[in-house]
Amino acid sequence: MLAPSQKHPQSSGFSLAELLVVLGIITMLIALLLPAIPKVRRQANSTVCKSNLRQCGFSLLMYANENKGRLFPENWGSDKSREQRWPVYVFRPPVWNPPVMKCPDDPQPREDHSYVLNAHLSDKKVRYGKSPGIPVDRAVWMGEKVSTSDDYYMENTGPSSDFDSIVEQYRHGVNLGSNYLYLDTHVGSEPPVMTEGLLDPWDVPGESPGADSTASASAIRQTTGGHG
Against a cut of 0.90, is the pTM above it? Predict the structure, then answer.
């Protein structure tokens, strides 16, 4: 028997009211956090996409260094067999659909690539180390394409421009827009507002007489280890 001075320990469990309060707080936190999850995922995917474009940029630099400044192989797009398309001539090992050509926010792109080259550069005879007629940090080298497009180049100017039908401006959402590789090799995000009022934002004037981007030419040799 228990001594008269001993008492049964009191229960330390939660009451029903306390459990309901805890459940209410958890539900409120979930409701606050859920809308942020897609945003965080898109930001993470955009970061991976930027990394892919940087790697593409490095491979394109190597190609330019080995081909007298030519920015990419011309006219080797979806009208050719897969083994003859431009990625085969740029990436090592040669492959028509390297993983870095796919954005994580574009899981099933047509012809297994998410990015498209700016053919205006080759049309205007722009080579690496030469001025495109605008600052090199604003000249698009490569960008994101519409998932349903099989194009490898963004081309045609004027009223017949392919910009609206080929270039994806909203890949990572309205606020983040899409990612772009520029001719100075930096990668950045641009919201769709960059294209307002412009017929073709990727077009370039071409090299002005006497214009030379010596710093860019030096950068390609330093980055790739080339000497000319």
Answer: no
